[in-house]
Amino acid sequence: MSYCRKDGKDTIIFVTKEDHDVPSSIQLPEPERPAGIILPDGSINWNCPCLGGMATGPCGIEFREAFSCFHYSKADPKGSDCLDSFSSMQECMKKYPTLYASHSKDLEDGKYLDEEDEELEKEENNFHKDVLKNQQQK
Fold this sequence. Notes:
CATH class of one domain: Mainly Alpha
Low-confidence stretches: none
Distance between the termini: 82 Å
Number of helices: 5
Mean pLDDT: 81
């Protein structure tokens, strides 16, 4: 026969073998899909693990400004109005080579954790291609 006992803040439940022989009737809720880099409302999820802490590091302000500028850019090509922001971010990152060198190497090697990271990489690559194309046209 199973029973429960309170021990301070804990509840201790004792069950018998017969209790375990019966299939559980508990239904768990569907797990919530974790939010990606872009939230359903279109805003940026700065807490996304796919950012790898970039939004909170020593160059976090510069990163957030550059990424926000690109994400919300209406320019053609997209992000071409963000060169100053990305330049500021790059200058900041140069001040912390030990911190950002491994991240740069991972980007160059194409090492990513999941689909959200790949989505972020595609967005960054498109930005760089558009910027280069724009500079060549000038």
